[in-house]
Amino acid sequence: MYVVMVYDVSVDRVAKVLQIGRRYLTWVQNSVLEGELSPAQLARLKAEVAKAIEPTDAVRFYVLPSRAVLRIDTLGQQKNEPGQIL
Amino acid sequence: MYVVMVYDVSVDRVAKVLQIGRRYLTWVQNSVLEGELSPAQLARLKAEVAKAIEPTDAVRFYVLPSRAVLRIDTLGQQKNEPGQIL
């Protein structure tokens, strides 16, 4: 499945949430990560993020059956793309 | 089509980009808006955002054939949902 994670967390917890997200997904834009995950990986990612955040934080996971159903249009600067070799 | 817009723009331009986004989509989380758009509406939204931002800003539009292909999992606070009556 293809997952887009968007987080809005307190500045105290941004580094931790980003660090967790990067272990599973590719950072593409400020507070946005993307990538292919198995259902088990997504469950682990969510469990780790849930432990790191507070109830006032907000995180959304957009879960798609595959990258193929998704079109991504961008404006402005492209910071990174999943699958890009750095 | 179902559209998720995520923006990362300079603080000087946040209010303008949010104002444009809200005319087409529903705000769901800091810097994230969602909703159903026709291809023509998406084209207009992108044209308006393109005029409002600078090359250092970044905006991503995730474009899906329909809301039905998308699962949205959330953690923490749910701020708003498209279709919710306020």
Automatic annotation (TrEMBL), chains A, B:
Belongs to the CRISPR-associated endoribonuclease Cas2 protein family. NCBIfam families: cas2. Keywords: Antiviral defense, Endonuclease, Hydrolase, Magnesium, Metal-binding, Nuclease, Plasmid. It comes from the Bacteria. Pfam families: CRISPR_Cas2. Its cofactor is Mg(2+). CRISPR (clustered regularly interspaced short palindromic repeat), is an adaptive immune system that provides protection against mobile genetic elements (viruses, transposable elements and conjugative plasmids). CRISPR clusters contain sequences complementary to antecedent mobile elements and target invading nucleic acids. CRISPR clusters are transcribed and processed into CRISPR RNA (crRNA). Functions as a ssRNA-specific endoribonuclease. Involved in the integration of spacer DNA into the CRISPR cassette. It is an enzyme of class 3 (hydrolase). The keyword Metal-binding applies. HAMAP family: Cas2. The gene is cas2. Mg(2+) binds at residue 8. This is CRISPR-associated endoribonuclease Cas2. Its EC number is 3.1.-.-. One of its GO terms (biological process) is maintenance of CRISPR repeat elements.
